[in-house]
From TrEMBL:
This is Bax inhibitor 1. Pfam families: Bax1-I. Belongs to the BI1 family. It comes from the Eukaryota. InterPro entries: Bax_inhibitor_1-related (IPR006214). One of its GO terms (cellular component) is membrane. Keywords: Membrane, Transmembrane, Transmembrane helix. It is found in: Membrane. The chain crosses the membrane at residues 64-83, 89-111, 118-138, 144-161, 212-231. It is a multi-pass membrane protein.
Amino acid sequence: MDSFSSFFDSSNRNGWSYESLKNFRQISPVVQTHLKKVYLTLCCALVASAVGVCLDLAWHIGGLLTMMGCMGCIFWVFSVPQYEEKKRLSILMGSSLLQGASIGPLIDLVLQVDPSILISAFVGTAIAFACFSVAAMLAKRREYLYLGGLLSSGLSILFWLQLASSIFGGSAAMFKFELYFGLLLFVGYMVVDTQKIIESAHLGDLDYVKHALTLFSDFVAVFVRILVILLKNSSEKEKKKKEEELKCFTGTLVKYFCTNL
């Protein structure tokens, strides 16, 4: 947090400057170069995922098979030696494309309800991702790594809750809790995974493909949950609007019959 306080102190004295945002003194040049490659690969993975979404919208290929293919590609990335860089990148792009196709049906539903929800969800996820990533970079090294254990415990709780809901049936309140609790967990993972990547790079682990895959998984997990939350809120608003219109119409009919009888 000292880096945050120094950032705000400098902005109070000298005004906001672009140079103050580039104050990553705790990160060595080698690690900074590694992070650039990680985020560039992440952007390419997001583009591949968008292509997968378009393929699903055109031919409806998304489903269980694409999800299983995505998981298979993820395991394949980890099994290929690190020196086979091009092959691992190709597998990562394939995994991202299949991931996009897997969430294609959800995005198709959102487009039918309100296309602006999709833009809001993506922009919101991108802003959250950028803010929490910068926070992790500006913070002291290893400052947020202790949260990893808490997040792992929370993820385990979420898994057992979802398993119980699938077996015994879940309520609307349980679904809402799982949705918001999962969003909180994966936002936390954005911070923790960013610091893990930085720390691993300091220790010599410069596997940018693996690190980009980790951040891509966090991004998609947050994006899907924000998308569902916005879709749910939009449906509830539409339902309330229809109920109010029905009440207004019923009231008008009652007044009409009362005045004409």
